[in-house]
Input
Amino acid sequence: MNRRRRIYEGKAKILYEGPEPGTLVQHFKDDATAFNAKKKDVIEGKGVLNNRISEHIFNNLNAIGVPTHFIRRLNMREQLIREVEIIPLEVVVRNVAAGSLSQRLGLDEGTQLPRSIIEFYYKNDELNDPMVSEEHITAFGWAAPQEIDDIMSLAIRINDFLTGLFLGCGIRLIDFKIEFGRLYENDMLRIVLADEISPDSCRLWDIGSDEKLDKDRFRRDMGGLVEAYTEVARRLGIMSENEPLPARGPVLVK
Output
C-alpha cells in the first residue's frame, strides 16, 4: 500500500496529496486547540462530526453558486478538495457581540450588533493572528483590492445563507471564521471559500436557552463538546435522533 504524501498539517486538519493533479485530501483530526494551541486536547469523534457538518454546509453553498474548494466527502474523516493557494487571512464575520469583540469593546456577550461586521486577521500563529486592516492587506501584498472586494462579497453571501440555515433549526449564528484561496483554472483565477465551516469555526447558540453548541465549550472548560457538535449535526439532519455518538464506533457513514 502506497504511503500518502503529507502536504501540510495544521492544528485540526492534515492535507495529503490527492488522487488527481490539482486535488488534495483533507483529513479531520480529533485534536482540539484554543488560544493558538496554548490549550490542547484530543476529543474522540470531533473530526468525524466536523467532516460531516462541513460537507453538508459546503454542498449547500456550492448548490447556491458560492465557489468553494470542496468536491466530495471520501469517508468518515476525509474530503476531496481542490488545491488552492491560501490567502493568509482569517475572515471573521460577526452578527452578535462575543469573544474577543466583547473584550475589546466592553460589550456584553449576546448584544446584537447594529449590522454584521467583517474583520481580517493575519494568519500567523507566532504573532497570535493579529487583526489587520485593508490597508495592511494591500500594502503587504496579501491580497489585491479586487480580491478583498470578492472576499467581502462572498463573506456576506455566506453569512446570509448560514444565518438562515441555522435559524431554521433553532440555532443563532453569533459569528464565524472562514478562509479563502486562489483557484487557478487554465488562465482563469478566482477566489473560492476554503478550509472548513463547522462548530470549530462558528459560535452557535441555541435560540431558546443560549446554550453554546460550539468550541467555546472547550475554550471555557464547559465539557460536552462532542454532545454539542452531535446536536448541531442532528438539527441539520445529518444524524438521526437515535444514532450513537461518533466516539462509540464507526457511524455517520451514509
Q: What stands out?
A: The two ends are 26 Å apart (CA to CA). The chain is about 25% helix and 30% strand. The domain at 85-206 is CATH 3.30.470.20 (D-amino Acid Aminotransferase; Chain A, domain 1).
